[in-house]
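Do me a favour: review this protein, sequence plus structure tokens, and tell me how the chain folds. Record follows.
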Amino acid sequence: MVLTKGFEIEMYTGTPQGEIVGLSDQIITDLDGFMREPDSRNVEYITNPSTNYENQLCGLLRPRRTLRKYLQGLGNYTLIPGSTLSLGGSDRFYRSDPTNSYHDYIEQTYGTKVVTASVHINVGISDPEILMRACRIIRLEAPLLLALSASSPFLNSQATGYHSTRWGLFPQTPTHVPLFASHAHHIQWVEAQLAAGTMQNVRHLWTSVRPNGDRRPYDLNRLELRICDLVTDPISLLAITALLEARLLQIIDNPSIDPLTQSSLSPEELITLTAKNEMAAATASLDAQLQHWQDGSNILARDWISEIYQDVWSIAKQQGFSCFLSPLQKILREGNEAQQWLQLHKVGFDAQRVIKQAIVATQEREQELENKLCSSLLT
């Protein structure tokens, strides 16, 4: 069994010098398949759900090629890597739709803390009780996926002390979200939040992981991982996804994997532990000191990831996608994007030079993958 996968990709637009420029109004008017975010400086596209990693690779690349051509036609504009307003602009909001009342609420309540770019990974699980158990486990392990994806060490041209400034500052909402013991518990909780106004609508649940579906919270069919920073390299993103899928297949196959029964900690203690782990991963990513959910013991993020990798490798191999999982070792060996950028910063590159270099590297990587792997599918 393999699972359906799909991505929601948010990216910034701007100049080759790294200045982020709001162009989403024009993009969504002129191009199919792109959606606006509350701020006009980033734009979103989604890939169609598919069980096939090759299809997802081309689904990630194709819209970007279209968008890059369009941006070139508008002027000398490009796509900018990273998950924060790396070089500046966090002092004000640039509204993409001034008439949208939900966007009013977001701007007034959170300001530019939400003007970030990221990737949401959706994985199909149709049974609501299995989905809830999967959400419980993946929420506790989501800091590991943040550690692999961190790409936002700068804000306003300064190194912030975070590897993921995005997640370090992001307003998780509501402030306290329990581990849902069942689908009924989730429904009851969401209805209570909507009644109390702590959630403005069913989309206003901003946690690392959430159950998703066509009629939330009642009809649910997928797990949505929301914690990851933007991973611009499709091969790296698919490796992170392959780790998530293999772990989910392991969870589906083994009902005894459940923090409500396997952990020596209470559900409330697990929520506290996970919040600390998320902040540790946002700060030091792969080098973060975390606490394991089973017993609270200390473990380095990279070691925990390696343990899960070894544990699920045979599942990925059996299901035919281990070649997409194996590039994870390169991330563990060479560091995530934030760590690579900070290494350059440490030897004297200022933030703008780092971002300018990343803009070029991202475009070259896309071209390389298109030519090697997707040319027949992208014509």
Summary: Residues 60 and 214 are 23 Å apart (CA to CA). The chain has a mean pLDDT of 94. The radius of gyration is 20 Å. The chain is about 50% helix and 10% strand.
